[in-house]
Write a structure and sequence with these properties.
Helix content: 55-70%
Shape: globular
Length: 303
């Protein structure tokens, strides 16, 4: 049975994430999902949910359930982390006296090296789009993804006023509504310029769409969605017949890996990616180190 007070606490936490932590909508939705799944578990286990009465035994039972249902370690770790953060909020607001999740170890995650495209592969992708209106849009879209390493949410959120082709930079709105300026190279500037002249206005006129500020549009002239970007990219990857699962985030990995391979400073890459912690960016050094080791093993006469 749902306890109204318990739900009020959740609502208060979500508002705290939005107003004080300035968390993104997706982050807030993930927290809410994780907490509500735990509520559903508690209802089956103990009946009425009261946050003050949750014990370590309840949490271990929840972990056992997720393990039995073969959830990935990363999923389990995220859910425990969400609930630990929720309890920190409850304690801060004096809604709970202790945080039972502090006594639970988060499952260790296997470190997965990021998937990325080789230079020949990304060049192949950038050469595929046609010269019709949608092809010009796709060209600009891919060039900008690779030029900036932006997240797909940042890409579809880009407005006309936040891209300066003359000075060659974009202003990206990242996680937690944090802004960062990222330079863009000549190839991306040219592709976006052609798109803005020969594609975007043509499509919008064709469907009589009122002018709006979003840079990238769909085939009907309205704002392009993140899902559409994934679908568009998937179509071209299928055409290239690459034996990799390539998402917009893989282009982000490609951006970072290629910068480091060509001698970029790690902290500069951190700033360009919008990572809060350097440790998040350091995963790309493992990628480049592994590649160097492979080249050595394959080419040194006495390796």
């Amino acid at each position: 049975m749902e306890n109204p007070i318990a739900i009020v606490r959740v609502t208060a936490f979500l508002r705290y994430l939005e107003l004080e932590k300035n968390s993104s909508l997706l982050t807030i939705q993930n927290y809410e999902t994780d907490i509500r799944l735990f509520i559903a578990f508690l209802q089956n286990r103990v009946g009425t949910v009261t946050w003050e009465n949750v014990t370590v035994l309840d949490i271990r039972a929840y972990l056992a359930l997720m393990n039995n249902e073969k959830y990935a370690r990363r999923t389990i770790a995220r859910r425990i982390s969400s609930l630990r953060s929720f309890y920190r909020f409850l304690m801060r607001e004096n809604f709970a006296k202790s945080n039972p999740f502090m006594k639970i170890k988060t499952p260790k995650l296997d470190k997965k090296l990021p998937v990325f495209l080789e230079e020949v592969e990304i060049n192949g992708l950038l050469e595929l789009p046609s010269k019709d209106e949608l092809g010009l849009r796709d060209q600009a879209l891919f060039e900008l993804l690779y030029a900036t390493g932006c997240r797909v949410s940042e890409l579809v959120g880009l407005t006309l006023e936040h891209i300066d082709l003359g000075n060659q930079y974009v202003l990206l709105l990242g996680k937690g509504n944090k802004e960062r300026i990222v330079p863009i190279g000549g190839a991306a500037v040219k592709a976006v310029d052609i798109y803005l002249i020969k594609s975007r206005p043509v499509i919008m006129r064709r469907f009589n769409v009122k002018e709006h500020d979003r840079l990238f549009i769909n085939h009907r002239g309205t704002q392009l969605s993140a899902r559409s970007v994934r679908r568009i990219l998937g179509k071209y990857i299928a055409e290239l017949a690459l034996q990799k699962h390539v998402s917009p985030h893989v282009i982000r990995h490609t951006f970072a890996t290629h910068l480091l391979e060509h001698g970029a400073d790690l902290r500069a890459v951190q700033e360009l990616l919008g990572h809060a912690n350097l440790s998040t960016t350091q995963i790309y050094t493992h990628v480049t180190t592994e590649r160097i080791s492979t080249v050595y093993q394959n080419n040194h006469p006495r390796a």
